[in-house]
Design brief:
Keywords: ATP-binding, Nucleotide-binding, Transport. Helix content is 32%, strand content 29%. By secondary structure, it is α/β, with parallel strands linked by helices.
């Protein structure tokens, strides 16, 4: 499904050039639950943002379902983000003035679906994460775990091929975080491809595959159980 070839990413910070990614090569199959593990500043979030179409590489290619997304125009990239992927963020990124149902419906506005269709799909997504009974509640009336479930439902509402989770339990206590990880496991078992970025070793072990990132390079990939470089 995803093939990343010789991807680099460089940033200018004042007079210095920072290499966030240094020649990343990675293949991710349909239906995988992949954890990208690494400390702060390792390049793991940069890699996820590039695969997710939120950023573009300095060089290299990112092929998703046979299409090089690094060459997409802005309009095509927006369509890719809206139809192919769903994002779950550490900070939930919900609108506090909107109900859970309205938050989940938001991505569908850009897909051209009718209001009735948006509601049906949003309720189905909330059902998948066990929150149908809280559909009329606002985020301020919910616990952190419930808000993250709403965020996951919003990521699911367009039936994406890939779900990206960026430190999805970072704002939650360990017990609640474990429950959220159970939701991701259940979604993966239903066939969703999950790509999770984390610095939490314990949560990374819940995935089926772990890719360790260090200093912008892949240090280890559990799928081959091989050390790529000393770290």
């Amino acid at each position: 499904m995803i093939e990343i070839s010789n991807v680099t990413k460089k940033y200018r910070m004042g007079k210095e050039t920072v290499e966030a990614l240094r020649g990343i090569n990675l293949k991710i199959d349909n239906g995988e639950f992949l954890a990208i593990l690494g400390p702060s500043g390792s390049g793991k979030s940069t890699l996820m943002h590039i695969i997710g179409g939120l950023d573009k590489p300095t060089s290299g290619t990112i092929s998703v379902e046979g299409k090089d997304i690094s060459k997409l125009k802005d309009k095509e990239m927006s369509k890719y983000r809206n139809s192919t992927i769903g994002f779950v963020f550490q900070a939930f990124n919900l609108e506090n003035t909107q109900t859970a149902l309205e938050n989940v419906m938001m991505p569908l506005i850009f897909s051209g679906a009718s209001k009735k269709e948006r509601k049906i799909k949003a309720l189905k997504a909330l059902e998948l994460v066990g929150l149908t009974d809280l559909s009329k509640h606002k985020p301020t009336e919910m616990s952190g775990g419930q808000r993250q479930r709403v965020s996951i439902a919003r990521a699911l509402v367009n039936d994406p091929a890939i779900i990206f989770a960026d430190e999805p339990t970072g704002n939650l206590d360990s017990k609640t975080g474990s429950k959220i990880m159970n939701v991701f496991k259940e979604l993966n078992e239903k066939g969703y491809t999950i790509i999770m970025v984390t610095h939490n070793e314990k949560e990374a072990l819940r995935a089926n595959r772990i890719v360790r990132i260090q200093d912008g390079e892949i240090a280890q990939d559990s799928s081959s159980d091989s050390q790529v470089r000393e770290g």
